[in-house]
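re the bet — no i am not wrong, look at it urself. input seq straight from the record:
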Amino acid sequence: MPRLSVWFIRASLIYLLTGFSLGAWLLANNGLNFAPSAWGLLPSHIEFLMLGWIIQLALGTAYWILPRHSKGPARGSLSLGWASFGLINLGVLLSASTGLLPAGFQAAGKGLEILGSVFFVVLLWPRVKAYGV
């Protein structure tokens, strides 16, 4: 498995643990009401599980499993892949910073996620092809 896939998948597992832990805390709070403002963290919980876990697990798997190039680097530009990884993860962390940082940081985080996704699409687009082509 390529190192970039390993990092995407490991990061996704960290977000899975973080998102589930935050979700458990929110559910416990729903029953016990020990932190009345806890529901303000629901967007962070969703961000960790959707973009942090599910999307990065899919990206890591796609980078690993799609057909390799027959000429040049087998999986394309490694720097573009790492840039995508960094932008997406920084974007997830900024977008999940609900209540911790000013609202502009969440918007910047979404922008970084989009830019990282565009980088990833540019990286993988040439590898999406019919069998034997």
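see?? The mean pLDDT is 92. told u. also The helical segments are 3-32, 42-65, 78-95, 103-124. so pay up
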